[in-house]
Design brief:
Layout: H1 9-26, H2 28-31, H3 61-97, H4 99-114, H5 117-128, H6 132-159, H7 162-169
């Protein structure tokens, strides 16, 4: 018998927002009335031709926003993969091996949590220099601790199970376990 799946309203809203921005990013050349790099005239007010006006160098602000969704999604998706990967791997090492590895990784995580995320990310990005790659590194550097703490708690829960102890006693390698 199948259980009826109940949709969470917040999850549905989040999915719709993500789909909205994905559609904008994919269809940016169709949606944007102008090339975002095209220079028209500086500081034009909002009008039928330029919905949000133009900036100081004469670029259409609406077109820049539409094409900007591509960059935002790119950074968000890759930063999420980096954060998830780094946080999970560090949590696996910390939770499974424990001892010094656990102490060092979790204390570094505690130090990262002690600083406000935005200020620390801006400091890291400022040190590394302006680029998309450095922005993703800065986001990952301040965000991995959340994933590490959650994953570590799950690893510690599983680590104390009987079948893990039996595998260790039977001589299984750590990579196998």
């Amino acid at each position: 018998m199948h259980k009826k799946i109940r949709l969470n309203a917040a999850a549905t809203a989040g999915l719709l927002i993500i789909l909205f921005f994905l559609i904008i990013a994919v269809f940016a050349p169709v949606i944007a009335p102008y090339d975002p790099k095209e220079m028209i005239a500086s500081y034009l007010p909002p009008s039928k031709e330029h919905i949000l006006g133009t900036n100081d160098v004469g670029q259409d602000i609406f077109s820049e926003m539409v094409y900007g969704t591509r960059v935002s999604l790119y950074i968000g998706i890759f930063a999420a993969f980096i954060v998830t990967g780094v946080g999970t791997v560090l949590a696996l090492v910390s939770g499974y091996f424990g001892g010094v590895a656990d102490a060092v990784i979790m204390r570094v995580g505690d130090m990262m949590i002690a600083f406000p995320d935005l200020i620390l990310a801006m400091a890291i990005a400022g040190i590394l220099g302006p680029s998309l790659k450095n922005s993703m590194i800065a986001i990952a550097a301040v965000s991995w601790t959340r994933y590490a703490r959650l994953s570590r708690s799950l690893v510690l829960k599983i680590r104390n199970r009987t079948y893990i102890s039996a595998a260790e006693i039977s001589g299984s390698r750590h990579s196998r376990i």
